């Protein structure tokens, strides 16, 4: 069973599915000229407390790659954490979409960049023989399930500004981060120095919907053409925008994220009480990273759990994770380690 393997394995949230069905009536203008997409742009401007430029996309990889291509020249350098999704899981899409920009993966404790680590890594500005420092990309929440506090984001963006770099946020799980830290969308993004956001929906209840959000329209001058060229300017864009409208209405995105976070905390708290089990990272959002005895891993696999296993096992909770699902996993691990 794929339970806990990822937050991509879940069903579509009922409110989002209803929105898709409601959009599936009659005709509507194509290529984003529909009413749903116009209302989405207005909704996001309201949420972020500023006028934003929005491009709906189908998946996180395309959203990240388009964001980076919009703000990074082909000869540019993109600094990111070594575990960042753009570095480990996007099949060179950022390099392809930017036309050759170079990713520079950096170390950092608990899956996060630090301002000092970034400062020490920025070299070669103005040197014609060197790729040019251009962009920083942060992942919120990180690929280790940890969170950048607002002051950490501000410290990193201050370094970026000093060197004339743009800052991108991969917000595939930004709702989980916002819920956990109790901050507003604006506080976590442009007020902290973020230039462009990949706003995730698919992992938190949407069928397939992300939004590329620019906080400065000048950064998006090339994006309409990149959006089309990448195949992300859908003719029936209303079905993507309808998902995001429902997702962002009545705090659904935050409610879903808060539930996922609570399930992860329940799981993490239970695992910490079991002998031989060790958390690899602090549990701060909806992911739990843990070192398990081999006997526990084997027992979970026999029970049908699809484990994302390396040296550390990752368990991911989602908007529809149930208490009994968590308790079943805990009981299997506890039984395995006690025999």
What does this structure look like?
By secondary structure, this protein is an alpha/beta fold. It has 2 domains: 234 residues, Type I PLP-dependent aspartate aminotransferase-like (Major domain) (Aspartate Aminotransferase, domain 2, 3-Layer(aba) Sandwich), CATH 3.40.640.10; 87 residues, Aspartate Aminotransferase, domain 1 (Alpha-Beta Complex), CATH 3.90.1150.10. It is built from 14 helices and 11 strands. The strands form 2 sheets. A 7-stranded mixed sheet has the order 1-7-6-5-4-2-3, sandwiched between helices. Strands 8-9-11-10 form a 4-stranded antiparallel sheet, with helices on one face. It is globular. The chain starts with 13 loop residues before the first helix and ends with a helix.
Domain tally = 2
Top-tier CATH class of the largest domain: Alpha Beta
Strand order of the largest sheet: 1-7-6-5-4-2-3
pLDDT below 50 for ≥5 consecutive residues: which ranges? Answer: none
Strand content: 15-25%
> Strand-and-helix sequence, N→C?
HHEHEHHEHEHEHHEEHHHEEHEEH
Measured as a percent range, the helix fraction is: 40-55%
Number of helical stretches of at least 4 residues: 14
Q: Quote the average pLDDT.
A: 97
Architecture per CATH nomenclature, i.e. the level-2 architecture of the largest domain: 3-Layer(aba) Sandwich
- Which word captures the global form? globular
By CATH, the superfamily of the largest domain comes out as: Type I PLP-dependent aspartate aminotransferase-like (Major domain)
Instruction: Give me the CATH fold name of the largest domain.
Output: Aspartate Aminotransferase, domain 2
Structural class determined from secondary elements? alpha/beta
């Amino acid at each position: 069973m794929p339970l806990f393997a990822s937050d991509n394995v879940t069903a579509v949230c009922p409110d989002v599915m209803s929105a898709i069905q409601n959009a599936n009536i009659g005709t509507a203008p194509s290529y984003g000229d529909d009413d749903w997409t116009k209302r989405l742009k207005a909704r996001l401007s309201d949420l972020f407390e500023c006028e934003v430029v929005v491009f709906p996309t189908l998946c996180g990889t395309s959203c990240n790659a388009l964001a980076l291509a919009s703000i990074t020249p082909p000869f540019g350098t993109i600094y990111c954490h070594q575990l960042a999704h753009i570095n480990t899981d996007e099949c060179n899409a950022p390099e392809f979409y930017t036309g050759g920009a170079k990713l520079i993966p950096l170390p950092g404790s608990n899956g996060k960049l630090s301002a000092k680590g970034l400062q020490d890594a920025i070299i070669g500005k103005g040197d014609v023989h060197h790729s040019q420092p251009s962009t920083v990309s942060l992942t919120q929440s990180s690929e280790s399930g940890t969170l950048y506090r607002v002051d950490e984001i501000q410290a990193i963006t201050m370094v970026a500004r000093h060197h004339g770099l743009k800052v991108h946020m991969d917000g595939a799980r930004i709702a989980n981060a916002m819920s956990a830290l109790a901050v507003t969308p604006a506080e976590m993004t442009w007020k902290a120095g973020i230039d462009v956001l990949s706003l995730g929906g698919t992992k938190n209840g949407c069928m397939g919907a992300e939004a590329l959000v620019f906080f400065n329209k000048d950064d998006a001058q090339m994006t309409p053409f990149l959006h089309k060229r990448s195949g992300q300017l859908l003719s029936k864009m209303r079905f993507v925008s309808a998902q995001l409208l429902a997702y962002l209405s009545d705090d659904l995105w935050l409610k879903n994220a808060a539930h996922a976070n609570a399930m992860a905390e329940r799981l993490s708290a239970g695992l910490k009480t079991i002998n031989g089990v060790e958390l690899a990272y602090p549990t701060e959002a909806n992911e739990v990273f843990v070192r398990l005895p081999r006997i526990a891993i084997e027992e979970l696999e026999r029970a049908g759990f699809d484990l994302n296993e390396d040296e550390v096992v990752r368990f991911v909770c989602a908007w529809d994770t149930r208490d009994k699902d968590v308790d079943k996993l805990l009981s299997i691990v506890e039984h395995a380690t006690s025999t």
